[in-house]
Amino acid sequence: MTSAQRIAIVGPGGAGKSTLARRLGERLGLPVIHLDVEHWRPGWVETPVEEWERKVRELAGRERWIIDGNYGGTMEIRMAAADTIVFLDFPRWLCLWRVLRRQIRYLGRTRPDMTEGCPERLSLQFVRWIWEYPRTRRPGVLARMRTAGAHARHVILRSPREVEAFVASLPYPHRASSAPQPSPRA
Q1: For 10-28, what is each residue's pLDDT tens digit?
Q2: I want to staple 11 with a disulfide (CB 3.0 to 4.6 A). Which of 15, 114, 128, 135 is the partner?
Q3: CB-count burial class (<10 Å; 0-12, 13-18, 19+) for 47
Q4: Strand partners, 65
C-alpha cells in the first residue's frame, strides 16, 4: 500500500475513521481531509448540496489525500477518485460504545476532526443510524465499492485488531529519506 496516494475511509459512526485517517496520514505522509470539517459550518449548519458536491469534487481531484467520512451523496465521487478504499466494517455495539465514549470525552467541546463551533452532540437519530447501519447502509457501501470503486484496492477491516495489524503492516516511506541515520558504534 505504500503506493497509495488517494485513500477513502468509510464506515459507520464511531468506527474510528478519523483516527485511522490521522494514523495513516502520519504513516504514509499523505494529507488528511476530514469530511466533517469540510461539510459543517459553525453551529451545525450544513453546506448547501450543490456547493458540497463541488467541494468534494475539488478535494477528490487533488493529487494525494486521505479522506475520511461517509456522506452518501458524494461517496461515489471519492470512491471513483480513490486508489484505495478502507471500509471499517465494525459491529454496531462497538461503534455505539465509541460514540458514547466520544460524547463524554468532548462534552460541550468540539473534537479535533470537526468544524470549530460544532460541539459534540449525540442524538437519537444518530444512534439509530449507527444501529441500523449494517442493514440499511452497509449493502450500499459495498455496492459502491464494487461499482464506483471497482478499480481501487479494497481493504475491509472488521475489528480494532485488524486495524492495528493493517497499520503495523505499513512502512514509513516518507520518513526514510529525512530520518537521521544512527551512527555506527565503534
Answers
A1: 999 999 999 999 999 999 9
A2: 15
A3: middle
A4: 6
